[in-house]
Amino acid sequence: MKALHLPLLTACLALSPLRAQTPPEDLAKRVDALSRELERVKGELEARPASGTVLGGYGEIQFSHFTKDGAKDTADLRRFVLALTHRFDDRTELVTELEVEHAVSSSDDKGEVEIEQAYIQHRLSPTWSLRGGLFLVPAGLLNEHHEPTAYYGVERNAVETAIIPSTWREGGLQVVGAFDNGILLQAGVSTGFDFSKWDAASTEGAESPLGAVHQELSGAKSHDLAAFAALNWRGLPGLLLGGSWFHAKGAQGQPAMPPMAATLWDVHARWTPGPFDLSALYARGTVADTAAFNQTRVGSPTLVPSRFEGWYGQAAWHLWSSGSYALAPFVRYESVNTAAAFEPLAPASLTPEAAPAERIWTAGLTFNLNPHVVLKADLRRFRNDTAQNRVNLGLGWAF
Amino acid sequence: MSARIRNVRLLAGAGLALGLACGSAGSPGPGGGLSPAASLGEQIFKDTSLSASGLQSCATCHVAEAGHGSDNDLPAQLGGAALNLQGTRQSPTIRYLATNTGFHYDAEGTPTGGFFWDGRAETLADQAAGPFLNPLEMAMPSKAAVVAKLAAAPYAAAFRAAFGDAIFTDVEQAYRCMTLALQHYQREDRDFQPFSSKFDAFLRGGVRLTDAEARGMALFNDPQKGNCASCHPSSGPRPLFTDFTYDALGVPRNPALSANADPAYFDLGLGARPEIARPDLYGAFKVPTLRNVALRKALFHNGRFTSLTDAVTFYVQRDTHPEKWYPTAPDGTVMKFDDLPAKYHGNVNVKEVPYNRLPGQAPALTDAEVDDVVAFLKTLTDGYTR
């Protein structure tokens, strides 16, 4: 169990934005502090009973003031998630998350009730585990670690919302290899995309191309499965380097549908030297055979792009802490383009023009009441769609 | 209970009642061919003896070669015992209606579904029941008279075999079974939903559209240009080019329609149905499928246009050049929407593209673009062969 959880624990510590609540003066002190914390958590883990049920959860409430149009201001309980984990024995556990979005879910409201995760994980050896069921796709920095206490800003970043459609889950089988050298390898097969869901008359596909066609194991068409892999390395304290790849055809055996093979990959890095927390990510998606599909929908507002991509760089500074309180300002710059290229159509005049990349500055503050409860405030400025400029206030929790 | 659910339950109940009354004659025939009821429906559909004139059948006004619509440019077809009385509306195509629903208001209050131009029939069978007794159409004096003709038809024995030896002794039952047979025919015979146009071949990936057709499709779909797809959806593997809703277009009055000789006569569409208590819907007619529209020789509910190019041009120039489409009063003002009483002019759609324009503004489509849209619409004609 120690060998299995050590890299995972290191990952969790590295991903916690306010991990450095007591900024060390030098690297040695910092490593000491980390080691002590690690030993404590390891001890807790080893003390866990072989079986048992653990209730967790997270949630977030947001207020947004749109600086160009106050009529768009909203206050929303964006999500409320209950997480239930049950250990059948020391090798097998069930992991689930049940989510309610927007406080009310009914036929007359926009809310949704969703199963965000529901999988069985079984440990084959100290290094290797199998995961089967509905799980989060290992992509980017945020998709698998999406609790409001795990990221800066009231809202998740645009790249990992529009390009990587977080929170993105599929049903399938996954092998997880957690090595002592800090490498975490994940790979498997899962359900993929259904491009027949693409509604060219709506803007959904322009907001998130893959978000418009992923299936989330809700009666998912499964003629064409996906293959995926992710590799993350945390071999040095405070450093994370990784990347992911996901590939699937989207025709699902439906007549008159071209194969529509979609590929998404990303590379990402996170480095936490001293009180600083620096991260960067680049994600790129491509879809093949879009011309045959788009040709039957020419003139519609949202055709399928052949390429979409985005990147961001983010810097946070753990400025102050006292007891359980901690304050960290951050700044993030993003470039995101959900329609960076289109395959040529006939006649050529019908080929849509590529969209300009949207560039977004976000600056804000994160204030922790304790490691599990966070207050956030930020300012987001959009270079193109300035109507989206807004001030956000947020309250989040995770336990 | 929502109106939608209520309607579905009513329809289910009606279907069940009909099924029980008319036996299992609707089961598919041997080899997957037409069921006995559908085969009877085909014969009934083509039987001219079931009209007062003895010269008119369902197929007279719903001609298969014309997309199961009328095959001439009359504003409405002639009927009656002497075939000298004109109806008040174009014979709508009855093709591609198998997936239509009964009339209901959707969650936003939009009237949807129903059969006929005003949606007054709940099912294909209900729709089939009407023309036999309409004095301006087949003009039979009563259901009993129709059933008597059925009993004397060459297929009477097959009718008895399908629905029971005593079927002709119960007029109501026999009449219901006749309409059910017509419904079976329209649902089962592939001629009513062949999906055999060039556009279908294009969707299947076997054919390319010409540049003009492809440009026309883009204009058809473009919400800022034709915006046709907002009511005539073109997406999906087998689009029907109608959303089965209703719209008030302000189609000009057609002086060639006999009923319009009376200046006090107005066809209010949904408003012609006494039970429709929504004056804001008066003047709205059903959005027809555009499949086979190029075969139509008279278009819109009153047959006002006899050219597809004129019909498309009307859409985009109704508001920018109203003088082209409506008469001018002695004082020089253009009498827009002259086929509706003035108090309902506010019901006419003036908000959506391409109607959202004013005199002097450029139409949403140029003449060349109208030609492209027409080229595209011609790809919707069934029976395409390379």
UniProtKB/TrEMBL annotation, chain A:
Q: Which SUPFAM superfamilies match?
A: Porins
Could you name the domain of life of the organism this protein comes from? Bacteria
Q: Which InterPro entries match?
A: Porin_dom_sf (IPR023614)
Recorded protein name is: Porin
Q: Which organism is it from?
A: Mesoterricola silvestris
Automatic annotation (TrEMBL), chain B:
User: What Pfam families does the record tag this protein with?
Assistant: CCP_MauG
Domain of life per record: Bacteria
Q: Which GO terms describe its cellular component?
A: cell envelope
InterPro entries, A to Z: Cyt_c-like_dom (IPR009056), Cyt_c-like_dom_sf (IPR036909), Cytochrome_c_Peroxidase/MauG (IPR051395), Di-haem_cyt_c_peroxidsae (IPR004852)
Q: Which SUPFAM superfamilies match?
A: Cytochrome c
The protein's location, in the record's own words, is: Cell envelope
Q: Where is the signal peptide?
A: 1-25
Q: Which residues cross the membrane?
A: none
Cite the GO molecular-function annotations of the record: cytochrome-c peroxidase activity; electron transfer activity; heme binding; metal ion binding
- Where is it mainly found? other
Name of the protein described by the UniProt record: Di-heme cytochrome c peroxidase
Which organism is this protein's natural source? Mesoterricola silvestris
